[in-house]
Amino acid sequence: MMLKLAGVDYLILGIYFAFVIAIGWVLRKYLKTSADFFESGRSLPAWVCALGFIGANLGAQEVIGMGASGAKYGIMTSHFYWIGAIPAMVFVAVFMMPFYYGSKARSVPEYLKLRFDEKTRSFNALTFAFMTIMSSGISMYALSLLLNSILGWNFHFCIILSGMIVLLYIFMGGLTSAIYNEVLQFFLIVLGFLPLVLLGMKDVGGWHGLVEKLNVLAQRTGFQPGTYTESWAHTGSASSNPLGVEWFGLAMGLGFVLSFGYWCTDFLVMQRAMAAKDMGSARRTPILAAVPKMFFPFLVIFPGLIAMALTVSGHGFQLPPKDGSYDYNMVVPLMLAHYLPSGMLGIGLTALMASFMSGMAGNVTAFNTVFTYDLYQGHIKKDGTDAHYLTVGRWTTVVGILASMGTAYFVAAFNNIMDVLQLVFAFVNAPLFATFLLGMFWRRTTGHGAFWGLIAGTLAAAVHQGLTIPAGAAVGLTQGGWMTIVHTYPSIMAQNFWTAIFAWTMCMLATIFISLATAPNKTDDQLRGLVYSLTEKIREHDTPWYLRPATLGTVVLAGAVGLNIIFW
Amino acid sequence: MHLDVRIPLGLLFLLLGLILVGYGLTSDPAIYVQHSLGQNVNVFWGTIFALFGAAMLLLTRRNKSG
User: Fold this and answer.
1) Which domain CATH number covers A179?
2) Are residues A225 and A301 in the same domain?
3) Residues 6 or more apart from A448 whose CB is under 8 A from it?
């Protein structure tokens, strides 16, 4: 379906692009050292870092993917927030940030070098660099495909346009430029999507109307009434909900392993917290970010629920069919087109493009930092001047954008962005959280233990995926079962969650056994500031009790529990 | 010393808000019946955008003088 834009919509898009580039232009004069470029000179206030923290995460898979999942799975999609993000964000703030920020490491892989050894750092840096380019390429591909299908814009033109804009503002302003644009994008998404949700809810007859209409859908798909509007009530067995996951797999796989693996170890988001001006701000960053994150389901999942409700009730809107089901990825763009007239439509589209671009920019800034500090300075040129690394960082940005463009064409083969990303996270991120947990809280963990534990965990993920398959899927590299099939899961989601659980458990056990079998490679003195038991507790006497991470974290957790109960 | 992010944030939303209100006042009312349940969302949300933008700019000024 083609969407007609009026002159005012193009004007709004144009103004936004001009602002984005202007921010880079203004910030370039503040940029003097490599620390300014890669770490914003550790100078930003907590609220700016917090909005960057979720802005960087608010990329393609969030806005399009969560709308799509909302339509496909219903309110259960909110698990990706209420148990799949909030607890981990509070945990990283209270328990882990003191080591990331306090160690003075410039990146997450660099922490691994300080704590363990060079090989563990390099392994993490390489897999992470690969993942960021892949994510950035997926963002670029998804954006271009979307603009091509709804606006009829040329696919190649979109790839080049988005790549060039992101390149320009990062090249000039570095991390600060990326974070500032994430702040702009955050408000654009919130203020741009809110009218859509409010109009949609009014249209379907409020919450009661929504439940009524989605119960018709539940009946049609053979589920109990309430399946699409209750988040926990139908998780007793995997076959009684559209997600195809039972409560244990959900809580352990998503709520613990995948969520903590992402929010506690992923440098993409951690880089935003590490740009904060002091320890207190760095620790408050993930918690402040968790507050809006908690309410995002209403912005990004509800359009999916509304779209399905309208579709089943024949209410003047139909999701287009695809492969015997619906084209879920079109939920968000079609809802924008349905409810927003020219003017606000321009805002909605700008918000959508902003989210893709900041997702891309988040990945590229994380990539250039890890490449420059962990791979280039770590292996190629150890003793360059600061100006040299600044230049390398800038040109790595160019390379990163070009590689993303290449990836964009490559990922055209995959169709469900969300499932592919989950798969990659499961292989790489799931074991990682075990490594950090042991590294930060068990001082006996050795470099060999960490390294081989990570390898074992990643291999376990691959083997588990190779031995299992989601019901009804074709045997293959993305779906699984490519070794032989020993178990069939009810859904690809369930398979991903269990892949993560196996990977994490394997990494945990292997790291413990190998650490016990090898000699410690760091002295207690070297581990000070890196390991819990050897680090002086942070004094918070100067911070009022209501600003302490533990207090704020408890409030946020209570909010998440409340939401789980309301939508049980 | 960095550029205060509230300056571009405030300017962007103030400008977009004014454009939305302007467009909302001059556009054909039929588009609101067709899309937004008959409500002129451009004028309403444009006002919210402009107020948000203005508030951000005011906060920057207050912090500077204070």
Assistant:
1) 1.20.1730.10
2) yes
3) A117, A514, A515, A518, A521
